[in-house]
Amino acid sequence: MVLGGGEADGTGCVLGGRDAAMDGALGALYGGNGATGSRKASGERSAGLGGSAPNVARWLGDIRTYFPSSVVQVMQRDAIERLGLSALLLEPEMLEAVEPDVHLVGTLLSLNKAMPETTRETARAVVRKVVEQLEKRLATRTRATLTGALDRSARISRPRHRDIDWDRTIRANLKNYLPEYGTVVPERLIGYGRAAQSVKKEVILCIDQSGSMAASVVYASVFGAVLASMRSIATRLVVFDTAVVDLTDQLDDPVDVLFGTQLGGGTDINRALAYCQSKITRPADTVVVLISDLYEGGIRDEMLKRVAAMKAAGVEFVTLLALSDEGAPAYDREHAAALAALGAPAFACTPDLFPDVMAAALEKRPLPEPRPELRP
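^ that's the sequence the OP posted. Answer follows.
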């Protein structure tokens, strides 16, 4: 990119071999409007991929040869956005050539309804590969973190030594402090209970499936499947635009969940929360997680009243503006401020932070602070 093409853009250096091929691959995407990556007669750089599937397939192979996977994913995303190549992803041979990642899955889901049957199985294979990678990365820590939270939430008064909650025990017995010995005599022990196999908590994931939330939908579906695999948590997964769809019955396979979504369309948060509210049977043991950029197309005041009513009943309400690695998205600041005033602050959450957020919600303690770039 720096040394350039023909006559090296005045640098006196000429690229050759592998370097020239890398420059051509970069130029095809970032170099201008053309089809070959060559220079026009006037000397102006010109490049592009055109609308040809063979050209794009060849280019996808080139960039996987010359660049690491993380760079390939960025270039693929840029190609889809800058050059309008989404339609080409409906061809099986194209899908087989791409490097799968969360953003590619989001694009495929947005094309789901237009996808021909000849492509659908290939698309599912691509989505499943990404889902399996995410589960491998996230599942073990999520289960361990939430199991610990559930254990700690079941306090007992006659714990075994290894189950004593020393912080709470000391606080409860400070009146028994003996200054001459510099110690506290504990009359009452407080300990962690062992979580039984019965359902201890209920979690409702309420996910906005508008187009801007694609990555959040992918991650939330994976986390929903992980939570559903824990017998002590009853998990419900609801997606919405202007309609509400309950995908709980498909939680045993997050790929089915993802293909049950329909990215794009309007947003009616109030309607979605009304449905979720109707499914709450044990408010004090329920966590509702709303994942949305809060651009409400429904009745704003009713939405806020529902959140206030749930919190008054004892529901833990968590608002995530995004569940992705991208940081805070564009969002409705007025709605975010209104929710914060109700005690449900809204912030963006990375997948790595999500288990800690859920553990805090299950234990009814303050949510962990997100990084500065994730705060509203």
